[in-house]
Amino acid sequence: MLENLSPQPADKILALMAAYRADPRDDKVDLGVGVYKDATGNTPVMRAVKEAERRILADQSTKAYTGLAGDPAFGAAMRDLVLGDSVAADRVAAVATPGGTGAIRQALELIKMAAPDATVWLSNPTWPNHPSIIKYLGMKMAEYRYFDNETRGIDYTGLIADLDQVQPGDVVLLHGCCHNPTGANLRADQMAEIIALMQKKGAVPFVDIAYQGFGDGLDADAQITRQIAAAFDNCLIAASCSKNFGIYRERTGVLMAIAKDPEQQALSQQTLQFLNRQNYSFPPDHGARVVTTILTDPVLRADWEAELEETRNGMLALRQQLADELRRLTNSDRFDFLAHHRGMFSRLGTTPQMVEKIRAEHGIYMVGDSRMNIAGLNENTVPILAKAIVAAGV
Ligand code: LMR
């Protein structure tokens, strides 16, 4: 049987992680995988997470199964964090999932069940695992233009023209904030126009929000998701806790399905639980319990929010430093977009050849599409990157 297997395509982000580890250079710089790092290159366990884990260790009296949706308190806490009061709680079905990827996978399985002929529309570019999973599930997909390689902003005209082609019942996947891989984000007024267009077309929105709190703040980053949730009878939202709680390896995420009314919510909840049962039965609990402990305790929550703000402001400072350094070196403002982008990533907008040149000559690792993880920098490596960008002739 196993002789029939053929090698599967490598994920380019994970392949880059391996290449970085194998590079013997002491001064190498990792701007690859989307993991937050502090100025010393460490990915810290957040203070509130440590304290929540201490409490769980002390107080937890059983490891018996939770439920197919995970602990309902987790679903409720995440619903409040992501959706605020944009939609009535009795319209939201929610299940815990193994990370944001688990939520995306379950959402796609749900779409496949409910609308097998729907095309899923993805931004060009998007996180490479989106098309990979869709293809694996044998679903239909299409792309809408998103990034303008000249301005390094949004190709808004192209985006609207492409979404005008959406058919009734098609699904449009949008990044809730901090677009991965570009760092270029839609404004609220643009989103209002896109919502009106999607409504006219009869499209169903699917929001992937994996970086809430990394862009403009917890509430600001949820704005697009809330606008969408408030505007449609149905939408799907996949949220990750990996980045904003720094619990990457705990695999903590949530899938929410917003239904038209409580009756449809009950059916959606039952279906989501069925899908969990088919794929892994009960979702992982530890990370979800940590998140719930933090979000429901005012002191822990305030400390988590404060540390997340420090993280966010640190990334903004690095963006500004890089933009300033490139302004100085090039005597132009053509890299100012780096300060305007938001979230963990910025797409430099250069060729794979240039990316390779920067890697070979300077030991600086970015993804081949020129996505840089800003959090991989520190005050000392920003000038090194700026010089490398200029030397490569970007
Ligand atoms: C990334 O885009 O680098 C992260 O979301 C990690 C991953 O799983 O690809």
TrEMBL record:
One Gene Ontology MF term: L-aspartate:2-oxoglutarate aminotransferase activity
Entry keywords, A to Z: Aminotransferase, Pyridoxal phosphate, Transferase
One CC-aspect GO term: cytosol
Top-level taxon of origin: Bacteria
Record has Transferase as a keyword: yes
Keyword Transferase recorded: yes
Cofactor(s) of this protein: pyridoxal 5'-phosphate
Domain spans labelled Aminotransferase class I/classII large: 27-389
GO biological process, one term: L-phenylalanine biosynthetic process from chorismate via phenylpyruvate
InterPro entries recorded: Aminotransferase_I/II_large (IPR004839), Asp_trans (IPR000796), PyrdxlP-dep_Trfase (IPR015424), PyrdxlP-dep_Trfase_major (IPR015421), PyrdxlP-dep_Trfase_small (IPR015422)
Gene3D superfamilies: Aspartate Aminotransferase, domain 1, Type I PLP-dependent aspartate aminotransferase-like (Major domain)
Oligomer status and interactors: Homodimer.
Family classification: Belongs to the class-I pyridoxal-phosphate-dependent aminotransferase family.
Name of this chain's protein: Aromatic amino acid transaminase
Species this protein is from: Yoonia rhodophyticola
